[in-house]
Amino acid sequence: MGHRFGDGPWLFRDLDFTLRPGEAIGLCGPSGSGKSTLLSIVAGFAKPAEGQVERHNISSVRWVFQNPHGMPRRTALDHVVQPLLGRGYEREQAVDEAMDIMTTFHLADLADRQFRELSGGEAQRLMLARAVASKPGLLLVDEPTAQLDQRTASDVDATLTGLATGDTIVVIATHDPNTRAACSRVIDLAWHENHEERKEQA
Question: pTM to 2 decimals?
Answer without folding.
Answer: 0.81
